Amino acid sequence: MVSWPSPDNATVIRLARDRRLATLLTEGELAWLLDERFDAPDEIWTIDLLRADAEHGWRRQRYKYDAATDVLYFWGERPLDVVEVRAMNLRTLPRFAPQIAPSPAAQPTPAATAGAASPAPQPAWGALRPQLGGAA
């Protein structure tokens, strides 16, 4: 008999997947989630991301996350031109921002956070406008 994972299991696996994906992004790098599919019997997430950075430009990347082995596989990428990116209407796409819960051991104590500086702001959508020719 096939054992189907519960929706909660898919959520747990998504969090593990996001931890792996987050290690690929550099600080300030922008990424959007274009598509995600969960194969319940094999416990595999397939993810398509749109990424943008100054060095590589716009690109669509596909990854597969295998929960059984806790491995993130790169399945390729395709460069995108500005016309394709404009057609996607980025404002309607979800930004990839992993919701990663820190481990209890990593939780700072109140004394350690007293007087700590707030984190640096992330670049805004407007930071990419020159690459898009000013159109939104």
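That was protein one. Protein two is written in the same sequence-then-structure order:
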Amino acid sequence: MRNIRILSVLLAVVTVATVAYYSQNGTQNIGNANTQVVLGSQVPLPEAMALNQPICSLVVNSEEVVLPAEFKTPRYLPLGYSMQDWWSVNGMVSIYYAPGPVCGENAKYTTLESGVIHYIAAKEISPKSEEIQKGKKYFEEYKSYSQRGNLISLFNVKGWPAMGWESGMKESITMEADGTVIDVRPVPYAAQIQTIDPAEKSFYMVKAYLPLAELKKIAESIG
């Protein structure tokens, strides 16, 4: 069974290359620059889904790679890529595409850096899912508040509002709950597209170390 129930996403002190963080007073600071996640922060739906997640679902069965029919998936993938693994939470599916296995002894593609494409599809799971309800306005606010808003592009995918950025480098900041900085180091971050289908109230994300133009082709093929 690949269905995993998660009621909320609570983050402790981490050192991952995220696109959002919370300050200690609860103010949300959105951006694809510094990473600061403090103890007890709760991340909104799109940011939680955009965090670095395990590539392998730990429930591996190559004959069982069949997705629930309710989720839309890309019809276009780069040459040689196919679905290798997936896991789901209520209202969301997380899929990993690669040219070869991402799990098991013969796994050659175990990270985004090694060539994995991470795809997420999510439906509005609560009336409070404000990000999905905002649609285009959400992406405009995201870019406006970002510390590197100049690197974020706003565009349309299939007529849906979307935003995206190319791969690059940023600082990863590890902090304690009291704000004490433990470590600062440069880390790479992958190119990414997020888009919202307002009609079906669905959120989609494509993330990989590929040119943004290639991610747009993948996103345009969602159906």
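The chain has a mean pLDDT of 75. Keep this in mind for the problem set.
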